[in-house]
Design goal:
alpha/beta; Rossmann fold; 6-stranded parallel beta sheet; 12 strands; Glyco_trans_1; GT-like_domain_containing_1; tRNA-queuosine(34) beta-mannosyltransferase activity
Amino acid sequence: MALEGQNFCPVLHASSSSQFPLQYDLQLCICILAHHINRADLKSINLKSLASPPVEPTVLFTSSVLNLAELVALRLDLGRLKKVLYFHENQLVYPVRKSQERDFQYGYNQILSCLVADVVAFNSSFNMESFLSSISTFMKTMPDHRPKDLDRLIRPKCRVLHFPIRFPEVTRFLPAHKRLRHSERHVNIYSPAAQHHTDTSVSSENESHEEKLQKEGLQTTSLAPDLEASQNQPACRPCDEREKPRPLHIVWPHRWEHDKDPQLFFQTLLKLKERQLSFEVSVLGETFTDVPDIFAEAKEQLVDHIQYWGFMPSKEDYLKALCQADVVVSTAKHEFFGVAMIEAVHCGCYPLCPNALVYPEIFPATYLYSTPEQLCKKLQHFCKRPQLVRQHVTQVNISTFSWETLEDEFKSLLRADGDMISTEQHTS
């Protein structure tokens, strides 16, 4: 379906999620990359031979991994289009284990692309500010002839536009203590197609939230438990006094790479094990060629605690695993948005994230930790009292990141005349 006669020619790469739910006349060019950075230099050459689209485009939408300056130089016909550059990550602050490993060219390509683009959109404020504030320091690594004030040239073009997520309908996968809260809290973020599959037997529309929970013998807390105040109190009784509560189920759904700091996660779990605390763990996420050794070591040491281990090709199985978990943990040293954490919250998980990177932009302070000791302390407390997280109503407004919320902004961005007036005003 065309957007009021506007034609949209996106150039994306597969390592960005395929969730962009755009329904316009478009020509989609995807470079399938196992290690997208290693092959990024080839993209413009590959796209040079791209056939002209059947309908003349008016907008070029590209990922920040592509060298837009190079592409426009090779394809002069694309230079006249409105050029939108979307940053899902930036190379200026990517964590490297050794400073000499940072490749200057990739960051430099992103700066050049910004200079060529008409609009530069970032998936988070953290991504935008960390990029713009790092340009000056980054350019100082050049031996001489260092251009100045590039950030001032680029900033007027910039805006934050969150990555749009289509939240799947997961009610049928949820345990009872999650289902009752979820059905009310998330009704507005499901797509119309997903709404058709909603389990209508969950509850009556006339019942209050409290009445539903009372039927299940549950209570809710709208704020996180005060860990210091409750540590000297006896553990809360489980809902069913005839048996102990299930062990706390912790999930880590991230790429198996060093920038997600799996070392910290597994070190924390091993401390819980040493203290003879009861817990279960699921380690999900994609693996690539070089998997850190800590994964094999941790699997052997935590074998009695593992529920799920490894990448789940089936999206449905992945969602089921998230729905079964109680707490989702991030130990990332590199995160510009974090779809996995937001999806886990959608599936009813209590989030624990570093008080850094993009996380304070998305999650209230309740769900942030500042040190490894704080992370361990929180998990230890929840292992002793898993009902605290099971009764908790998570205070994260994930509807902000739904496609239904962001649709109009993307439509405006992808119009040939959209978002250009404000940019021209800034630059004049």
